[in-house]
Amino acid sequence: MFGKKSKLTVVLFLATVLLSGCANNKMPDLSNKNSSSKVDQDKQPTVAIALARGKILQSSGLITIPVVLKNIGSNSTVISSKNFTLEVQGHKFNTFNAPGEASDYHQDFDSNRIWNNTLSFYLGTTLTPKQLQHVKLFYQMDNGKEIQAKVLTTSTNQNNIRSNLNNDMKSIGTYYSDITSFVKKNKEGEDISLKDSFSDPDYDKFKTWIVVPKKDPHNIIIKVLNQSNTDISISFNNIELVDRNNVETRVAPSYRNYFLIIPHGKYAMASVPMESKLDVSRKPFLTKVRTDDKDFFSTQDAIYPIETVISSNGKDINSLFSLTPKEYKKCNISWSKPVLDFENNKLSVIVELKDYFALHAKAKAFSLVGLNKDKTIGDKEYCCKLSPAKITKSDPTDMILSFKDLSLLKTYSNIELRYKNSKIMQIK
Fold first, then answer.
1. In 10 A of CB 180, how many CB atoms?
2. ∠ at Cα 44 (41, 49), nearest 5°?
3. Cβ-contact 19, 65 below 8 angstroms
4. Residue 396 · residue 352 · CB < 8 Å
5. How far is Cα 26 from Cα 160, in angstroms, rounded to an integer?
6. What gap in Å lies between CA 241 and CA 303, rounded to an integer?
7. Is residue 254 a contact partner of residue 19, using CB atoms and an 8 Å limit?
8. Residue 236 · residue 260 · CB < 8 Å
9. 330-426: same fold as 10-164?
10. What are the extents of the domains in the chain?
11. Which of 69, 122, 142, 268 has CB atoms 3.0–4.6 Å from 96's, for a disulfide?
12. How many CB atoms lie within 10 A of CB 99?
């Protein structure tokens, strides 16, 4: 799994929120002569690891940490996501991997290369300031030795930790520029293919979701599925959110020098701080991207545009990617084949999800509304029992809604199913 072991030096930096505003200072000397662990290179690798840790970002049960690895040894190695460990007061956590979603990776790491990525660990809770003081990050080296990251000062020049390994990957801005241009050319009648254009027949299979937790709007959660054959990286400096009033909000300065890597065939996820609190009342939000130093642009013309949603179910990452019937975009969910059973006071409908998000609902939020000829409400009956209350699969699902008494609705020729007074579908 790993490359050569001899003469390897890897330097790990962890830089967080407290490192902003330090771009004019020099980065610590990372040469072998200053290594904290100095041995004969002919016997074993010389390893120097330094860690800059400030206010760690916590959101929805996740701890997110930007990490930079530098190989200043003479030989190549392989970076393995499984080699990172977070330790909190003796408890150890591996990088977050959602059930059924492959997010582990191995990346070749040549001498003098810099690797910049963002790691997420699931704790399921929020650490206190005292607990944060005991957070430690470890990386297991080729020889099996665990190296504890050390602390860098806030004088670190963040321009010096920019990755040259990420430059070999497709950037988020370049990807969406490529795919929107491809769509435009196809619409104009050009005979082109993904394979001929990008040497990747699956280049279109890249999906990005941005979630704004309603209960934590200072941060966003980025989730990506890369089913293409191309490795892609997101520079946090090259994304912004725009609300309905055209107010633009970028990622916080402390994270703009960092990346999220999405290897081909993998998922990736990270919580990211914004430069200011997002006003969720100004929905909908649109996510824009750019290539370095160019204007931000919308991805709406891409085959799979970036989907930006506000989730009211944001206490924990395990429930964050779940929307109510009112929150779910109409184009991404299908309600069909309603059967109204007045005798048993039940309504059955077929629900089909066409998006990544699960559907969750409360029985009492559903109502059947009988409308008069002038469209005013004549009678309203609230649901008292719902099965299932949560749908996680994309297969068509039979949802059963039970009511106390539907007899008064029999006389209405116009009946709607509503959720929190928003129309879901026409029943009759």
1. 18
2. 85
3. no
4. yes
5. 8
6. 20
7. yes
8. yes
9. yes
10. 10-164, 170-320, 330-426
11. 122
12. 5
Neighbour-count burial of 146, counting CB atoms closer than 10 A to its CB (0-12 exposed, 13-18 middle, 19+ buried): exposed
Residue-wise pLDDT for 85-103, tens only, equals 999 988 999 999 888 889 9
Beta strands in 252-332 (DSSP E): 259-262, 266-273, 286-289, 297-298, 307-311, 322-323
- Calpha distance 151→52 (Å, rounded): 4
Q: How far is Cα 49 from Cα 411, in angstroms, rounded to an integer?
A: 75
Cβ neighbours of residue 145 under 8 Å, at least 6 residues apart?
47
Round to whole Å and give the CA distance between 199 and 201.
Answer: 7
Classify 330-426 by CATH class. mainly beta
Question: Does domain 10-164 bear CATH number 1.20.58?
Answer: no
Q: How does DSSP assign 204-264, residue by residue? A: T-EEEEEEEETT-TTEEEEEEEE-SSS-EEEEGGGEEEE-TT--EEEBPGGGTT-EEEE-T
Tens of pLDDT, residues 302-344: 999 999 999 887 678 888 899 999 999 899 999 999 999 999 9
